[in-house]
Amino acid sequence: MLTIHHLATSQSERIVWLCEELGLPYELKRYERDGVSKLAPPEMRALHPSGTAPVITDGELVLAESGAIIDYIVMKHGDGLLAFGPAHPDFAQYLYWYHFANATLQPLMGRNMILNRLDLAPDNPILVAAKGRLSRALDLVETRLGEADYLAGNRLTAADIMVVFTLTTMRLFTPLDLAPYENIRAYLGRIGEREPYRRAMHKGDPGMAPLLA
Question: What is the distance between the alpha carbons of residues 193 and 171, in angstroms, rounded to a whole number?
Fold first, then answer.
């Protein structure tokens, strides 16, 4: 059976949610962050040389990186769900937003998190540039969600599963005001109404209220 090694409040929530959406049987092993460093515990770091979450095991396979894991599960177990193939009219949109998550949005959030902790002057050019790039990225998401209910089109796909973490749980590490983004907030409301998402968050991070507004 597929085993998800889930680090609390981390990108590995994506994999739990994916399996819930697919109705795929899995075993969930939770790991708590170190109380001081907030990093993964040694037991999780021992699973894969990257030392990061998520990690899955599937028989003899040990696989890290959320994008790779989602591709693996969708291609092997997805039965055509949660992804668009080359013949679909929204295939390019699917590819763009799927890769936008960890190629653009997540790095920009991480960069702003680090810079915000350095107590830089508000007019520091590096800080101003980083905030500007994040704002532009969020504007892209806002515009897209004014065109479609989900990022790739009219139904939820793995592209949404990749992006939502950065718009929600990541904000526990670096606050982000979504008040100016009406379409994003409505989108997160739709996500929060999905029973598979609710189950995933309850199983993966019980007691944590998802930041859906």
Answer: 20
